[in-house]
Design brief:
mainly alpha, 323 residues, MetI-like fold, 0% strand
């Protein structure tokens, strides 16, 4: 038993090291991308008629006069100590700009996740326990059709139906910043539904495969021959076995949500970290741009590592080091 858990810890340690290396590479790419951006932040803020002296002072005050290597080391050390710097445009601390938006984005992703997981499990169980049936074919075709649309197309379709034609929901989610609780909740509906629809197809297909494998396994066949009630088989045998197999799929799809928020928040003008990233890029607000990008990339890497750790915890073969 000790050897089994030691092997599992070694595996998790390797995945953690890989996650750290990936984060370092992401941070380098983000910094280099912002360092070589063609627009000059000083001219964006001061105007194109600014004197060379004004530009030098501006660059020195905002740490833009350093070399790429020195600037990266300074930025990375400040970031690790919680010093996110100041916005070049507003001169406000980046933390006061980004953190409230990060909270709204995480709430949006959580709502989409809570909407997507039950639907995906329901569809996956229906299709997995009835492979080849007419219902399986109908649901599979619809899921495949939804998967063919990118997030911004789904967003436009939902906005057209519910905001323009039916007029039951707002096309813009900016109202989450003010208004009553019901008005703020309405601002989350369309973005959350869009993100949910974007990940439901992939989750459903993975759950369907897992359900079909478990449903056709010898122990469930024996249970059916013994006359075990379908509800007992579903709750007592099928769901626990399927849950252990698809938990990493669920975790990885939550990571995919964070990758899709940039597009969805932009379409619906949702005041989250994705929209702030786009605004920072358009205004060349370097500090805000770097912080938003590293948070999104770091969250994606962290969730991938969490998925790996969950798989090791639930899979004895990986803990024993079996192939």
């Amino acid at each position: 038993m000790r050897k089994e858990y030691r092997t599992g810890l070694v595996y998790i340690g390797k995945r953690l090291l890989l996650a750290v290396v990936t984060l370092v590479i992401i941070s380098i790419v983000i910094y280099v991308a912002t360092f070589v951006v063609p627009a000059d932040p000083a001219k964006v803020w001061l105007g194109r008629y600014a004197s060379p002296y004004q530009i030098r002072v501006f660059n020195r005050e905002n740490g833009l006069d350093q070399s790429a290597l020195a600037g990266y080391m300074t930025w990375a050390s400040h970031f690790l100590t919680g010093n996110l710097g100041k916005s070049i445009i507003t001169q406000a601390p980046v933390s006061t700009i980004v953190l409230p938006r990060l909270e709204r984005t995480m709430l949006l992703a959580t709502l989409a996740f809570l909407l997507a997981v039950p639907v995906a499990f329901f569809l996956g169980i229906i299709t997995g326990t009835r492979p080849g049936s007419r219902l399986d074919r109908i649901i599979s075709v619809q899921i495949l059709g939804i998967a063919a649309f990118p997030e911004f197309v789904i967003a436009v379709i939902l906005a057209t139906i519910f905001a323009i034609y039916l007029k039951v929901l707002p096309v813009s989610s900016s109202q989450v910043l003010y208004g009553s609780f019901s008005a703020q909740l309405e601002g989350y509906v369309l973005p959350a539904a869009t993100l949910a629809l974007a990940i439901i197809p992939h989750m459903t297909r993975q759950i369907r495969v897992a359900v079909r494998e478990v449903h056709e396994s010898p122990f469930l066949r024996a249970a059916r021959l013994r006359g075990l009630q379908p509800r007992v088989m579903l709750i007592g045998h099928l769901l626990p076995s399927v849950g252990a197999r698809v938990v990493n799929v669920v975790a990885l799809n939550f990571a995919e949500l964070l990758a899709g928020v940039v597009v969805v928040e932009t379409v619906f003008a949702f005041p989250g970290i994705g929209q702030e990233l786009i605004q920072a890029i358009s205004s060349n607000d370097v500090a805000v741009m770097q912080t938003c990008a590293i948070i999104i990339g770091g969250a994606y890497v962290a969730l991938n590592f969490l998925a790996d750790a969950i798989v090791v915890a639930l899979n004895p073969r990986l803990r024993r080091g079996d192939s």
